[in-house]
């Protein structure tokens, strides 16, 4: 059953004849006792397992020492159910970050903020964690604003201050403005989504500049076997003529078709087209020559009047040298977006990565740096585009992409999330703000006041109980870094830069502590910088180590450093749901879909050990695990002997 749930398999897998033969081979008693499970049994056991294990999950969540953060988003299943995936992120008793799916309810009514909030609150209440809810990471949909107002009113906090905006969604809006100019949403709504382009849609894309013209070209190639084989043939002929054996060993490449206005697919389309540029030019020329030959009158040598020239051969659809220059620049700029979003789309959990280094992707303290990094890159291209004579789309769209980023950068102070996370990272602290925002002292003052307010009102007088935690393992320093990570590395400062601007507390926020009162941990920590802080890669492990010295400040740091910068986990949940609800499983009920996805996440988080064994009662399993190895062998011998006896008895009935 665990295999079926975790791999998103059909319940009818349990009835497959080959699988049952494997079970019978491994244990003849399965067939003799008719112990095979049916699809109906699997469904029933999934429901029972969900109800059985939910109590344990509730205990784990309720025993979390910090806040539980939430992310939710909507998705429509293939069998036409409007589902909302609700994820939570928390720290276990050892302060290790964890994540699970809380529920996947259906919102069958209008998707207003009130209706969404009602479903989210019902799920939260079912786990008994209303008093532990922290911060939310949501996309920029307007109904999320009203949903947070309702949730905040119910749970007793200001919903706007507890709501972070998905950084990936912000980058998507900026990238689409960069690619398609003003009002890309209206442009997207005009597209039918059909594989082949109508003349109207072809014209809509062409008017969007070089990217639109390239889109038309690759779609026409993809929809034509003649063009596809011609492109491969042109490449193969060139490779065959090469004297380099490595070139001759290559295989022809196909074009990459973008997914309407999904910007990463646009980037991959552009990159492949740049690589194939010389072959595309030859392909168009050969296709035009073949068309002219087929449509030329043998008697007069003139083109037939009824002949219609293919779209890719028309001059207005051709990509000029200027267009290719723009595409190359866009590929470079979108490459910066790509490394930024890939660095921030993880779950913030430390893991061993490829090449042996240990680290995490998806860290909340990198969001502000992500804005600064991308806006600086766009500033460079804005200066470059100012003197760029043609085409107009390049100049305008660079500025539109920058404006979209700036719009959301200027409203970061709606919530203290981003300021607290960066200020309490031991390698950055307030030195980062003073270095990058030195020309905007009012920004720094606002950020410091917001962080101080959180400390004074929520954590300074917090009663804390230190829980045991494992010491963090030594981590191998990562050698490879992408452009965004290199930018972040340059933001780590020496002591002189950091200590030259001590943190000051606004007068109205200063504590009324007396000499007999406990020291202010926040102010003490700001003065505690040591040179090795610059090398800290895992601030969560740092604050775990310093819990005894800063019990309240460490609680505040761990609460904020584990907030998600993106709602990417919801997207991953929907990807799993898409593999679960296939066209062949269109009759799956909403409750079963949700239970399967929730159980799957509990297993992956190792909160529950397994959903099996299927054939051994729980009490027998517990007793068996306590036996000695010799006792286990004796039990197995007895079991096999009884199986043989049953087989002999069966022969008498043949």
UniProtKB/TrEMBL annotation:
> What keywords were assigned to this record?
Metal-binding, Nucleus, Zinc, Zinc-finger
Protein name, as recorded: HAT C-terminal dimerisation domain-containing protein
Chain spans, region Disordered: 491-521
In terms of one coarse class, where is the protein primarily found? nucleus
One GO CC annotation: nucleus
GO MF terms, alphabetically ordered: protein dimerization activity; zinc ion binding
Which InterPro entries did the record assign?
A: HATC_C_dom, RNaseH-like_sf, ZnF_BED_domain_contain
The Low complexity compositionally biased stretches are: 496-506
The record's subcellular location field reads: Nucleus
Which parts of the sequence belong to the HAT C-terminal dimerisation domain? 529-603
Q: State the species of origin.
A: Fusarium oxysporum f. sp. cepae
